[in-house]
């Protein structure tokens, strides 16, 4: 990892407040190509909010976002997708009443030359991409409401990787999954990483993500406690960052660190 | 057949029973079939109770004309309810727009371009549709961009537009309508006659066959599982039979003798001894309703907009996060609803040959009931245009059948109310079982 190249994502001094509560308060965080950064913190630490600003779901009050070193204007989910930022939300954010193909292409439908939906072509690539992620998946005609938790998760993941994402945000990606499916997601993260995609992993449980991440960034009360390379800190030290906001010697302290 | 998907689908199919296999092969909507079944039962019951007066070409033809107005609006109500909204103002909007169209052709245009000008009907209709679109857009804007719940906005609209309809002429009824405009409402003149009805029927049959072939070709393109050939032929045959049967029925209803006499005199035709039989054929309002249904079905199933409507209904937040401009889609839905109200207003104004400020009163409830009986879920995300139109036909069959039996109006209302509740209850059970 050479830090001389421009970071894929560089969020600087991001702040957002909801009715007087500063959910994110001057947070800075960056991500390099082929890197996995785990964003950790308690429930309500501001990590999901920070990441929703990047994915365009929330509009920041202040701060800048740079993509590949250039300032990016992201004010809605469409903008973010145009920069190759794809998000897998904790709630999966699937349209329950339409089928898998319709979900994969929601907002970016394939059209026939006559301007109508090309359902057959969409189903074709849906079968292709789902075949890679979950080869036993066959229920292409059913609304995703009828699918199991793991199947829904693979639909959400397929949607994120279908459009050649360069930055992938995964919010609690394994929270709803069994051990086998969790391992599958781990494999997928390694594969995407090797393709040069930068990944933000968001979790409140460090055991889920510690072995997958290159770096960890810890948030508390809307501020960044510190960031550290995984090799420079151990799990206990990271736990100390999450719970106490105490920055260990191996980490670079942020504004939220207590002395 | 190297595609594993196909062999797996086949393997699944073989586990099913013969009936289930039939439904899977034909991809028939069992829910819709159930509704048609209910409709047939109601028709047969009225036929029996009325001593054979219900299932006559005349009654069914009238039924189709009476259904048109609500059926047109029900197609739009589906989109509104699917996105978890409601529109209580459609009856009042119908009344107001009907009034605008009435005044335009009976009082405004005659001064400008003369009485019975050939362009009168299209100008009046155009002004009506623009007015409807503006009203729908205005309400949709408040709902989508200002965030006021649809229930409240359209409840306000219910009062506002009914009052506005009164305001246009201070409550005076406007009549008569332009003679060309009147064709929109049906009647012997407003029907297309036997020959054209057959033409329409045959074109419809060709379209059905063409669509089936095209969809088969599309699926072949990517080597997807296809319906068995017998199922395709079966579906094509049933559809064509239904279409041609409806045409034959409409053609079996002849002009009343008085009108035939007047027509014969006007055209110097000598009425033969056996009497002169002129077929009504399909009524213009029915054609309009069917065309609206086809267009709306196309919009909901084949366009981006339709896809977004259903995605939003299933999970509004997810649709937003997927980058869909949900507010604009919501506003568009209400614009469409306004246009459909205008079309429905044209039909009922033309049929009545007058515009009154009470027109369309309580139509909002009939429209919502038609959509809901037709399988549109108030929880959002589920509904079909065809279902809503059959729902409208079912409601109209009930009330017109009860009129035929001479039931008192209060009793009619009680029955319609009960049927609505029971229908939704049965649907809830059906959904729970199939989910």
TrEMBL record, chain A:
<keyword id="KW-1003">Cell membrane</keyword>
<keyword id="KW-0677">Repeat</keyword>
<keyword id="KW-0762">Sugar transport</keyword>
<keyword id="KW-0813">Transport</keyword>
<keyword id="KW-0067">ATP-binding</keyword>
<dbReference type="GO" id="GO:0016887">
    <property type="term" value="F:ATP hydrolysis activity"/>
</dbReference>
<dbReference type="InterPro" id="IPR003593">
    <property type="entry name" value="AAA+_ATPase"/>
</dbReference>
<feature type="domain" description="ABC transporter">
    <location>
        <begin position="9"/>
        <end position="246"/>
    </location>
</feature>
<keyword id="KW-0472">Membrane</keyword>
<dbReference type="InterPro" id="IPR050107">
    <property type="entry name" value="ABC_carbohydrate_import_ATPase"/>
</dbReference>
<dbReference type="GO" id="GO:0005886">
    <property type="term" value="C:plasma membrane"/>
</dbReference>
<dbReference type="InterPro" id="IPR027417">
    <property type="entry name" value="P-loop_NTPase"/>
</dbReference>
<dbReference type="InterPro" id="IPR003439">
    <property type="entry name" value="ABC_transporter-like_ATP-bd"/>
</dbReference>
<dbReference type="Pfam" id="PF00005">
    <property type="entry name" value="ABC_tran"/>
</dbReference>
<dbReference type="GO" id="GO:0005524">
    <property type="term" value="F:ATP binding"/>
</dbReference>
<keyword id="KW-1278">Translocase</keyword>
<keyword id="KW-0547">Nucleotide-binding</keyword>
<protein>
    <submittedName>
        <fullName>ABC transporter ATP-binding protein</fullName>
    </submittedName>
</protein>
From TrEMBL, chain B:
<keyword id="KW-1133">Transmembrane helix</keyword>
<keyword id="KW-0997">Cell inner membrane</keyword>
<feature type="transmembrane region" description="Helical">
    <location>
        <begin position="366"/>
        <end position="395"/>
    </location>
</feature>
<dbReference type="Pfam" id="PF02653">
    <property type="entry name" value="BPD_transp_2"/>
</dbReference>
<dbReference type="GO" id="GO:0022857">
    <property type="term" value="F:transmembrane transporter activity"/>
</dbReference>
<keyword id="KW-0762">Sugar transport</keyword>
<protein>
    <recommendedName>
        <fullName>Xylose transport system permease protein XylH</fullName>
    </recommendedName>
</protein>
<feature type="transmembrane region" description="Helical">
    <location>
        <begin position="142"/>
        <end position="161"/>
    </location>
</feature>
<feature type="transmembrane region" description="Helical">
    <location>
        <begin position="333"/>
        <end position="354"/>
    </location>
</feature>
<comment type="function">
    <text>Part of the binding-protein-dependent transport system for D-xylose. Probably responsible for the translocation of the substrate across the membrane.</text>
</comment>
<feature type="transmembrane region" description="Helical">
    <location>
        <begin position="61"/>
        <end position="81"/>
    </location>
</feature>
<keyword id="KW-0812">Transmembrane</keyword>
<keyword id="KW-0472">Membrane</keyword>
<feature type="transmembrane region" description="Helical">
    <location>
        <begin position="118"/>
        <end position="135"/>
    </location>
</feature>
<feature type="transmembrane region" description="Helical">
    <location>
        <begin position="402"/>
        <end position="426"/>
    </location>
</feature>
<dbReference type="GO" id="GO:0005886">
    <property type="term" value="C:plasma membrane"/>
</dbReference>
<feature type="transmembrane region" description="Helical">
    <location>
        <begin position="88"/>
        <end position="106"/>
    </location>
</feature>
<dbReference type="InterPro" id="IPR001851">
    <property type="entry name" value="ABC_transp_permease"/>
</dbReference>
<feature type="transmembrane region" description="Helical">
    <location>
        <begin position="233"/>
        <end position="255"/>
    </location>
</feature>
<feature type="transmembrane region" description="Helical">
    <location>
        <begin position="32"/>
        <end position="49"/>
    </location>
</feature>
<feature type="transmembrane region" description="Helical">
    <location>
        <begin position="275"/>
        <end position="299"/>
    </location>
</feature>
<feature type="transmembrane region" description="Helical">
    <location>
        <begin position="195"/>
        <end position="213"/>
    </location>
</feature>
């Amino acid at each position: 990892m050479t830090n001389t190249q421009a970071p894929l994502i560089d969020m600087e001094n991001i702040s957002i407040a909801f009715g007087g509560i500063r959910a994110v308060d001057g947070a800075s965080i960056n991500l390099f190509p082929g890197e996995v950064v785990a964003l950790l913190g308690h429930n309500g630490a501001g990590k999901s909010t920070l990441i929703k600003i990047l994915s365009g779901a929330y509009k920041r009050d202040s701060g800048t976002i740079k993509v590949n070193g250039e300032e990016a204007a992201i004010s809605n989910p469409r903008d973010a997708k145009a920069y190759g930022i794809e998000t897998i939300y904790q709630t999966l954010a699937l349209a329950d009443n339409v089928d898998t193909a319709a979900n994969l292409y929601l907002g970016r439908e394939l059209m026939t030359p006559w301007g109508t939906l090309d359902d057959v072509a969409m189903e074709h690539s849906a079968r292709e991409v789902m075949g890679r992620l979950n080869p036993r998946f066959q229920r292409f005609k059913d609304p995703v409401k009828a699918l199991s938790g793991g199947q829904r998760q693979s639909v959400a993941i397929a949607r994120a990787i279908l459009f050649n994402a360069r930055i992938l945000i995964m919010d609690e990606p394994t929270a709803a999954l069994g051990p086998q499916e969790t391992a599958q997601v781990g494999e997928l993260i390694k594969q995407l990483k090797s393709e040069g995609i930068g990944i933000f992993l968001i979790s409140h449980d460090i055991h889920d993500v510690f072995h997958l991440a290159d770096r960890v960034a810890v948030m508390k009360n809307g501020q960044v406690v510190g960031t550290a390379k995984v090799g420079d800190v151990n799990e206990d030290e990271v736990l100390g960052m999450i719970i106490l906001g105490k920055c260990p010697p191996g980490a670079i302290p942020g504004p939220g660190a207590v002395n | 057949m190297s595609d594993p998907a196909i062999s797996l689908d086949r393997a699944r199919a073989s586990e099913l029973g013969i009936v289930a296999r039939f439904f899977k092969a034909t991809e028939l909507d069992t829910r819709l079939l159930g509704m048609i079944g209910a409709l047939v039962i109601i028709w047969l019951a009225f036929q029996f109770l009325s001593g054979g007066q219900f299932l006559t070409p005349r009654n069914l033809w009238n039924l189709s004309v009476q259904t048109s107005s609500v059926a047109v609006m029900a197609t739009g109500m589906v989109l509104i309810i699917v996105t978890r909204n409601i529109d209580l103002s459609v009856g009042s909007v119908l009344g107001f727009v009907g009034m605008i169209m009435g005044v335009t052709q009976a009082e405004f245009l005659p001064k400008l371009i003369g009485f019975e000008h050939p362009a009168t009907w299209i100008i009046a209709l155009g002004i009506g549709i623009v007015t409807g679109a503006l009203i729908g857009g205005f309400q949709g804007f408040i709902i989508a961009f200002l965030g006021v719940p649809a229930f409240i906005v359209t409840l306000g609209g219910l009062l506002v537009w009914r009052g506005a309809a009164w305001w246009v002429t201070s409550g005076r009824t406007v009549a008569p309508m332009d003679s060309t405009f009147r064709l929109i409402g049906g009647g012997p003149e407003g029907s297309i006659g036997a020959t054209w009805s057959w033409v329409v029927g045959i074109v419809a049959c060709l379209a059905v066959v063409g669509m089936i072939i095209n969809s088969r070709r599309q699926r072949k393109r990517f080597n997807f599982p296809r319906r068995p050939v017998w199922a395709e032929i079966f579906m094509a045959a049933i559809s064509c039979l239904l279409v041609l049967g409806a045409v034959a029925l409409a053609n079996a209803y002849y002009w009343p003798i008085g009108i035939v006499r007047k027509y014969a005199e006007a055209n110097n035709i000598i009425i033969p001894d056996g009497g002169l039989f002129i077929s009504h054929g399909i009524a213009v309002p029915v054609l309009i309703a069917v065309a609206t249904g086809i267009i709306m079905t196309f919009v909901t199933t084949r366009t981006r907009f339709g896809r977004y409507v259903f995605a939003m209904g299933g999970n509004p937040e997810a649709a937003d996060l997927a980058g869909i401009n949900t507010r604009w889609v919501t506003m568009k839905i209400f614009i469409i609803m306004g246009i459909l109200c205008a079309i429905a207003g044209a039909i009922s104004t033309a049929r009545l040959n007058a515009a009154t400020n009470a027109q369309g009163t309580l139509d909002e409830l009939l429209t919502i009931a038609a959509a809901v009986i037709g399988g549109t879920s108030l929880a959002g995300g589920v509904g079909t245009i065809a279902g809503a139109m059959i729902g409208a036909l079912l409601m109209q069959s009930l009330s017109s059948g009860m009129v035929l039996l001479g039931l008192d109006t209060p009793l009619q209302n009680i029955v319609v109310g009960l049927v609505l509740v029971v229908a939704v209850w049965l649907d809830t059970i059906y959904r729970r079982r199939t989910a």
